[in-house]
Write a structure and sequence with these properties.
Radius of gyration: 19 Å
Distance between the termini: 39 Å
Strand order of the largest sheet: 7-8-9-10-11
Order of helices and strands: EEHEEEEEEEEEH
Shape: globular
Amino acid sequence: MHAFFRVSGMTLVCLATTASAQAQVQRRESLCSKEEKVAFSCRVGNKIASLCASADLSDTSGYVQYRYGTKNKVELLYPASTSHPRAYFRYGSNGYTGGSTAYYRFSNNDYDYIVYSGRGWKWLNEGVVVEKDGQRLASLKCKHEAIVPDHWGGMSSAGIPTVEGEGNQFDMP
């Protein structure tokens, strides 16, 4: 769409794109390969956080990997192998009046990572939290909607165990 504006005797031509079209492009930005499903991906600061799942993910096959960094350099890849996610990830959810939060938790060295999506009536809160010894070190909030709905839910087909124990519950930032 072209728009013409006249300002102080000058004619300006603007190519207009909608905010939703720009958000659509940003939402698709991920560190996943073309062969993988994007379960979660968003820009956090100048980096990208992605949960990538193999196309064959099921309760008996496939993998899920968390990737953090830029297109040119992945700074964190977990797990390093493409093994089934049951051994590496835990799933949890919190429900409350007007919304709920779903999350995947994993531990790498002495750090815990929580990739989450909280949704409710007229609100959305998604991102990644980093903890050590139960203390929150970082809360990386998504700049745009992160979840690809068909694929986040599809991770449940992998039979990822649920988070157990009160100490592993998640308080959304």
